[in-house]
Design a protein that fits this description.
The complex is a heterodimer of chains A (440) and B (371). Chain A has 440 residues and is of the alpha+beta class. Chain A has 17 helices and 6 strands. Classes of the chains: A alpha+beta (440), B mainly alpha (371).
């Protein structure tokens, strides 16, 4: 039976489907990205993130990525905005999506403190979309195009849900208790937000939503309710948290789970019917091409399945150590605050200095660095480099760092006896991260 | 459209409506705290700072008119008296103080003595508008301090105001600076005032507006400013003069109010500002009528509330234990200054980690998105 099923599945993946929904996805994505770029101009973020900082935190392998001089970053974002418009309009689609993806990725590779899960999602979508035939003039596309986009969106919810299957989230209702109690002026139901049971209800409902919404979207009978749940969920989180474009991206992207002809149905309902495409309008691809497409999709999604679980290779609580935390859809999972100071010693003279982060970083960078051990290591290296440049011989840098996770008492995050100037970053476990305190 | 979709659309409309409307009756506890902070801390402190600044201008008028030891003593005392309530507003230095740049017009530190001397040497007619046009490093508290104090050498100050070749111009500048300071301090109090003023306090304590869309945003403003202030005091006002940034070499010239020997009082008043916001009262009454952030923290974690109060007290005690003058202490009583640094740093850490967590505060250093 299994051998019979595989060819049918392959045939189904290469069967033509109405292109209307993927075109709608492309238009919505381009429009939202245009707005996202406009927000960078409107809020002055280009200056505050790329021009005002004097030091930047680097991604492994991307230390060469730096802000352009002069007005370069403004030009960069203008190009990004034009490319986003190109995606929305479908003109020069492939060039537009590649240009947008590259400029977007470059900008966000400049400084690791700017990492956001939804920026990662945008880059992933650009990678996928760069290989998809989403330009103008297509009536049908192979079904795998639709499923590639569905798969990418599904990854966010499913792994976001799996990430919530942690003791703090499920059995302590943290950090939900903290977040809800701070938002008791939420319309109508805010009065309940101070109740412990409400935090548990939200925590469990949130995990259940993330884990269940994709299957619910895929089943015709539950699809309308699942989509309404998506709208409700993202509107509520948008009101509770400062999430910018993320809710809108997810609300718009989730439409990809509707039947591929949904835009035509909506047009017909609005009294402006659009003719359905002629079926079987696509040439049948060669077996080699089919194998290539399937292998690429398999490799891509295998990567996405593996990445969120890489934290299992490291000791300790991933929310405390943050080893394997990024690129894993740990979305709105922790409430963590920290404070860091660097203590510098010149061994040959015994001279000592205290180097506060404010001497090197913007306040936003300090906030982000203070809870993330790999960024703290980079900060120690910045301090060491600075003191070497000032003529201090072989400076040793020890970090005095405390953090509070999900309402716990503050505790030391970094071993203060370790000279971080001598430690290197990399994929190995960082032994100088102290264990997370127990209990809440 | 089938029935499922119609039902779902109805539910979506309901949710959108719910998230769009507001409900003033919820979160009463935090609203009470905000109202208490406004009535018991913010507005009285700003009013007192403005009144003391006006009194300082009057005292300075006297020394300008007849510079002698008595009028100088009175003007110096008025400067010190004005300085304390002003520093006690530091934990709410957001809003008009920052947005309208009134804070730097009143108290920029450091000022540039060379540029102030250049103003004295200049011939440009002095007026209030002229003072408005001066850079922040040539006016405010520390410009006045420069003209009124010279460490312990009052004779030098009086000589500069009487027998120096530029004495007349110096006196004229002194008077104009004082009146400009009083006007700016009054403007700041008015900008916050709910009655006949800018009404900023109303935005803060009645959230639901574009500046403070939620109660949380208003509470966050106080918490953020307290965290920032504690950090500034530790790193800049104590750590730098102590030489923590210079390999242990003291930098007494970096103390905030050197000529008046008021730096330790400045530090203590700033910590008290955090205390006032935390406790919700400016007085030392055993039973305050309202409570500040303390009420919110205590409701969630009583032990932490006690720790914060103890940390504030410890910081104040450590500052009080520093022998005066500060510029000498940073060189010859380093342990006492180091103890004050450690105490203020600890306060910052408690506020910036656990208090922030318990209150669900978003440390807002910009308006970027999350996740």
């Amino acid at each position: 039976m299994a051998t019979d099923r595989r060819p049918r599945l392959v045939d189904a993946l290469f069967a033509p489907v109405d292109a209307a929904s993927v075109v709608a996805f492309r238009i919505a994505f381009g429009a939202l990205m245009t707005i996202a770029v406009a927000r960078f101009f409107a809020h002055g973020w280009i200056a505050s993130y790329f021009l005002e900082p004097t030091h930047f935190f680097k991604y492994e392998g991307f230390a060469w990525v730096a802000p352009w001089p002069g007005i370069g970053m403004y030009v960069h974002f203008a190009v990004m905005g034009l490319a986003a418009l190109g995606i929305a309009t479908g003109r020069c689609y492939r060039a537009s999506v590649i240009a947008f993806g590259l400029t977007f990725a470059y900008a966000h590779l400049i400084d690791l403190t700017n990492y956001l899960n939804h920026y990662y999602l945008v880059i992933c979508l650009c990678v996928v979309m760069a290989f998809l035939p989403l330009g103008r003039g297509r009536a049908t596309v192979p079904a795998w195009v639709l499923w590639a986009l569905r798969g990418q969106i599904a990854v966010v919810y499913v792994f976001g849900g799996i990430a919530k299957l942690k003791a703090d989230w499920l059995f302590e209702a943290q950090p939900m208790q903290i977040w809800l109690s701070a938002n008791q002026d939420f319309p109508l139901i805010g009065g309940l937000f101070g109740e412990r049971w409400a935090a548990f209800a939200f925590s469990w409902a949130g995990a259940a939503f993330d884990l269940g919404v994709v299957p619910a979207l895929l089943w015709r009978r539950t699809r309308p309710f699942a989509y309404v749940a998506i709208v409700a969920f993202h509107l509520v989180t948008m009101r509770l948290f400062q999430l910018g474009m993320f809710p809108w991206i997810m609300i718009a992207s989730s439409l990809i789970f509707l039947p591929p002809d949904w835009p035509r149905r909506v047009a017909a309902w609005l009294g402006r019917p659009r003719p359905a495409p002629v079926a079987a309008a696509l040439p049948s691809p060669s077996p080699a091409r089919k194998r290539l497409v399937l292998a690429a999709l398999g490799a891509y999604f295998a990567f996405h399945v593996a990445m969120p679980f890489r934290y299992l290779l490291y000791p300790g609580d991933v929310c405390w150590t943050e080893q394997g935390f990024r690129f894993s859809w740990n979305v709105m999972l922790i409430e963590k605050n920290g404070a860091v100071d660097a203590h510098v010693l010149e061994p040959s003279t015994g001279r000592r200095w205290v180097a506060p982060p404010s001497a090197y970083l913007t306040r936003y960078q300090i906030k982000m660095m203070s809870t993330q051990p790999d960024l703290i290591l980079q900060f120690a290296h910045m301090v060491a480099a600075d003191f070497r440049a000032r003529g201090v011989r072989d400076p040793e840098v020890r970090i005095d760092a405390v953090a509070s996770l999900n309402g716990r008492r503050r505790a030391r995050l970094i071993d203060p006896t370790v000279d971080l100037a001598r430690e290197t970053n990399g994929l190995g476990a960082k032994r100088w991260i102290l264990p997370r305190p127990t209990g809440l | 459209m089938n029935r499922c979709w119609k039902l779902a659309s109805l539910a979506a409309g309901l949710v959108a409506g719910l998230t769009g409307c507001s409900d003033d009756s919820s979160d009463a506890e935090r609203r009470v705290v905000l109202r208490g902070l406004a009535d018991e801390v913010v507005l009285p402190a700003l009013d007192e700072a403005a009144a003391r600044s006006a009194a300082m201008a009057t005292a300075i008028d006297a020394v300008v008119a007849a510079p002698d030891q008595a009028t100088l003593d009175a003007a110096q005392a008025a400067w010190r008296t004005a300085r304390v309530p002003w520093k006690e507003t530091a934990a709410f230095g957001f809003g008009p103080a920052a947005d309208q740049r009134l804070g730097v017009a009143i108290d920029q530190s450091p000022v540039d003595f060379t540029k102030i001397d250049a103003e004295i040497a200049a011939a440009t007619p002095i007026s209030d508008a002229y003072i408005d046009g001066l850079g922040a490093n040539r006016k405010g508290f520390h410009a006045l301090e420069y003209l009124l104090f010279h460490y312990d050498d009052d004779a030098a100050v009086l000589a500069a105001l009487t027998t120096d070749a530029a004495a007349a111009r110096r006196r004229e500048l002194l008077g104009a600076l004082a009146h400009n300071h009083a006007r700016r301090s009054g403007e700041l109090a008015t900008a916050w005032s709910p009655s006949g003023g800018g009404g900023y306090i109303t935005l803060l304590v009645e959230p639901g507006n574009t500046t403070y869309p939620t109660v949380k945003a208003s509470i966050d403003a106080f918490v953020n400013e307290s965290v920032y202030l504690a950090e500034l005091l530790a790193d800049l006002r104590i750590g730098k003069p102590l030489g923590l940034a210079t390999g242990g070499v003291p930098q007494p010239e970096l103390e905030e109010s050197g000529p008046s020997d008021h730096s330790i009082d400045d530090l203590a008043a700033s910590v008290r500002s955090i205390q006032h916001v935390y406790l919700g009262t400016r007085g030392a009454a055993a039973e305050p009528t309202t409570r500040g952030l303390s009420a919110l923290v205590a409701a969630r974690r009583p032990a932490l509330d006690g720790e914060v109060i103890a940390a504030i007290d410890q910081a104040l005690a450590a500052l009080a234990a520093i022998p005066r003058p500060y510029r000498i202490a940073v060189e010859s009583n380093r342990e006492a200054v180091q103890a004050a640094y450690d105490a203020v740093k600890e306060l910052k850490r408690i506020l910036g980690t656990e208090v922030v967590a318990v209150l669900g505060t978003t440390l807002e250093f910009n308006d970027n998105d999350g996740d």
